[in-house]
């Protein structure tokens, strides 16, 4: 049967665009369907009045992101477009910011940990060094931690290690409830990315990679895919009022959306999709008339606010310290990240109420914030970051071993790795699976 396309990709986030890029390079006819009017997904950046506002992702580590850096090199993105952040992460405790979180010196400086907890941090680092080879970001289910949650794993150590390190890191960067998500993916990722001193950002906004990938691809924005049906090796996409046929489809959307779109998945697909839950994310961007930041012994790029200290915020990102181009000269930009436990109620609240709740909480950490704010933007994603629940981790191996099919998947949730590297790696993997299937289905020419 003839089809409209070789491959249809649903979703123009980094996973979808990586998938389409790889398949386009292989000479296949590929089209990307995106519901929003822009590419980038959770890595989109909003430009407004000279400010560049990252709506979701914030940084790109130098280490542990091999697939991303290879992709950047292939796209000829110069290293000057991915500059070093060069600032510290702080932890709020006892009324002040303690710099040095995720730095090599943290076990000695404390970074918010009590002396007894620092000894346990040394124990943890020594244990992780001995077992480093057993932690694989691509296969977190194989780690020695099994399906223990972050909270269960932290119970081996002093309480501070959970309350003033693992919970704030999990809550801010991953959006996780430590009682629900497993430790293996988090520990694997932390070991891979290493010292915060090597972390970088994209000069012109976190959507730089998405925009470069989209160049030269057939991307249709504002296009709503309502359903995907596989029938005898051909896949039909119901797009608006039209039907598009393809030899293969790759669903590059969060697992709950993929489960809703795909009308007839296999049992193994369905089981893993159901297990892959997401936490919502929400933050408020504060456009300032001057550059403000939390007071600290070192310049901060992020201040983490643990649940033990704050029930509204999980952290504050100093965007103009992350890169000066995020705000006009002499101005400032802060992102206030909501606490994961508070987000569900904020998603239903009027926008002004959300702004008031988070900015009121942030005044404790940033004196002068109220008078410096010129404008606010609220950014939320109902499917913000994938959880790595014990059920999802348990089912992942069988899902990854499934035979190739007419409908494939890509996204950070496939890797149980809530990071852009997970999206890139899953996109490359999905493209390889599609190529293997389409090569096998080609007729033999005598």
UniProtKB/TrEMBL annotation:
Highest taxon of the lineage: Bacteria
MF annotations from Gene Ontology: oxygen-dependent protoporphyrinogen oxidase activity
Domain Amine oxidase: 14-434
Enzyme Commission number: 1.3.3.4
Enzyme kind, highest EC tier: oxidoreductase
Keywords per UniProt: Oxidoreductase
One Pfam family from the record: Amino_oxidase
Protein name per UniProt: Oxygen-dependent protoporphyrinogen oxidase
């Amino acid at each position: 049967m003839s089809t409209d396309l070789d491959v249809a990709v649903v979703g123009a986030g980094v996973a979808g665009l990586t998938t389409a890029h790889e398949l386009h390079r292989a000479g296949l006819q590929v089209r990307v369907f995106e519901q929003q009017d822009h590419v980038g997904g959770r890595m989109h950046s909003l430009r407004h009045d000279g400010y560049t506002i990252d709506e979701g992702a914030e940084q790109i580590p130098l280490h542990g992101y091999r697939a991303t850096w290879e992709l950047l090199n292939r796209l000829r993105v110069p290293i000057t477009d991915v500059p070093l952040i060069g600032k510290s992460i702080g932890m709020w405790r006892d009324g002040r910011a303690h710099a040095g979180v995720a730095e090599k010196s943290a076990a000695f400086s404390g970074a918010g940990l009590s002396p007894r907890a620092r000894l346990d941090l040394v124990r943890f680092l020594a244990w992780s060094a001995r077992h480093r080879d057993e932690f694989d970001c691509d296969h977190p289910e194989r780690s020695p931690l099994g399906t223990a949650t972050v909270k269960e794993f932290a119970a081996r150590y002093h309480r501070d290690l959970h309350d003033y390190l693992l919970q704030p890191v999990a809550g801010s960067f991953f959006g996780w409830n430590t009682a629900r998500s497993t430790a293996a993916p988090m520990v694997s990722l932390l070991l891979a990315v290493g010292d915060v001193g090597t972390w970088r950002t994209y000069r012109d906004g976190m959507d730089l990679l998405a925009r470069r990938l989209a160049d030269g691809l057939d991307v249709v924005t504002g296009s709503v895919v309502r359903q995907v049906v596989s029938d005898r090796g051909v896949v039909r996409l119901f797009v608006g009022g039209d039907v598009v046929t393809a030899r293969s489809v790759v669903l590059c959307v969060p697992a709950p959306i993929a489960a809703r779109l795909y009308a007839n998945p296999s049992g193994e697909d369905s089981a893993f999709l159901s297990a892959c839950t997401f936490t919502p994310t929400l933050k408020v961007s504060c456009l300032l008339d001057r550059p403000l930041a939390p007071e600290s012994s070192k310049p901060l790029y992020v201040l983490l606010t643990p649940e033990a200290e704050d029930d509204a915020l999980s952290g504050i990102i100093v965007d103009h310290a992350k890169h000066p181009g995020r705000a006009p000269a002499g101005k400032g930009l802060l992102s206030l990240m909501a606490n994961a436990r508070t987000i569900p109620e904020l998603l239903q609240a009027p926008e002004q109420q959300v702004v008031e709740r988070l900015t009121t909480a942030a005044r404790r950490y940033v004196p002068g914030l109220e008078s410096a704010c010129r404008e606010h933007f609220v950014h939320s994603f109902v499917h913000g970051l994938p959880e790595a629940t014990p059920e999802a981790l348990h089912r992942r191996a069988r899902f990854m071993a499934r035979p190739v099919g007419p409908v494939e998947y890509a996204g950070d949730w496939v890797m149980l790795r809530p990071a852009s590297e997970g999206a890139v790696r899953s996109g490359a993997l999905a493209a390889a699976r599609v190529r293997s299937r389409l090569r096998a289905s080609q007729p033999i020419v005598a």
